[in-house]
Amino acid sequence: MPLVHIDLSAQRSPFQRRAIADGVHQALVDAIGIPADDRFQIVTPHDPEELIFDPNYLGVARRDVVYVQITLVQGRSRELKLDLYRRITDLLAEAGVRPEDVVITLVENALDNWSVGNGRAQLVELGTVPGARVEP
Amino acid sequence: MPLVHIDLSAQRSPFQRRAIADGVHQALVDAIGIPADDRFQIVTPHDPEELIFDPNYLGVARRDVVYVQITLVQGRSRELKLDLYRRITDLLAEAGVRPEDVVITLVENALDNWSVGNGRAQLVELGTVPGARVEP
Amino acid sequence: MPLVHIDLSAQRSPFQRRAIADGVHQALVDAIGIPADDRFQIVTPHDPEELIFDPNYLGVARRDVVYVQITLVQGRSRELKLDLYRRITDLLAEAGVRPEDVVITLVENALDNWSVGNGRAQLVELGTVPGARVEP
């Protein structure tokens, strides 16, 4: 169910782009417990001038940011979110991304805000999602 | 007022891309009652490897996903949302998209989160949006 | 901390695209008080047919829309948001964008929905963001 947007430099190789997408997905599985087959990702390569970031905001030395935006159902605890950030950053390091360059944003929505095919609202039918404490 | 992001394969023809955008818009008009001229859409074609999805999550046989993300004012009922998913999927089938391949996400925000030109907050001035039950 | 998505026509020059990104950032600094070095932006140029909009919805005569979507921590007052819309539109006019063509959407999230590098949740550590009234 999470929908993952990854915006990164087109100068990163197709091989690395795939490794980055794999890493973000594995981190969601590891840290939040989403099913391994619950994978929906949009990767958008950009010319370098299209990815703008400050090279030192809050003391983090960024050089080539990978933007990860994850839309997911609300209700994951702060602890789970912090685990997720660490796990994404660790796995992206294995894919050759400097930890300083991983910028992550979450956008939370409701259980009935999803249709993963056939025009049905499958999450409403399931009634819950992994790791969520509250039922919308 | 809804802002619609459509991410799809660049291998779909420009003609089909437009038909898909038209279908999503008509579904918003039909199911939620937005005005016919309340249309704001961003279509982004992708190389196939940039659109990642599981080919069978929750038993839906996906082959060539069209991602539809709709940002809209909160307050539409679950019933309206389910109507919207069905209507989008039906109209996209007419545009040649398999129902299994339509993945929809909603992101809800507040009435004062919109400016549709001239730096004004037109929805605040209107005071409401079609189909919404609550006034933020 | 705000993450800014700017989607605009590829027919706008690289020079103007940068001026637009600069203008949106300066408006966030001026109107909401974010730090000058708190800058994260993704610019996506599009072929004209990929940016769809009504040329007259709510009486605004649009010709070449620049879409600005800002993800930011919740809690800014309506007054601050209205100031932001006016300031963005004014500064984009200086960058050669007609005020009618500036369409802005805000998506608000929580303090613990951000990691700006190194896998940490820096906003949680800071405990607040400029201009926000409530502490999540």
TrEMBL record, chains A, B, C:
<dbReference type="InterPro" id="IPR037479">
    <property type="entry name" value="Tauto_MSAD"/>
</dbReference>
<dbReference type="InterPro" id="IPR014347">
    <property type="entry name" value="Tautomerase/MIF_sf"/>
</dbReference>
<dbReference type="Pfam" id="PF14552">
    <property type="entry name" value="Tautomerase_2"/>
</dbReference>
<protein>
    <submittedName>
        <fullName>Tautomerase family protein</fullName>
    </submittedName>
</protein>
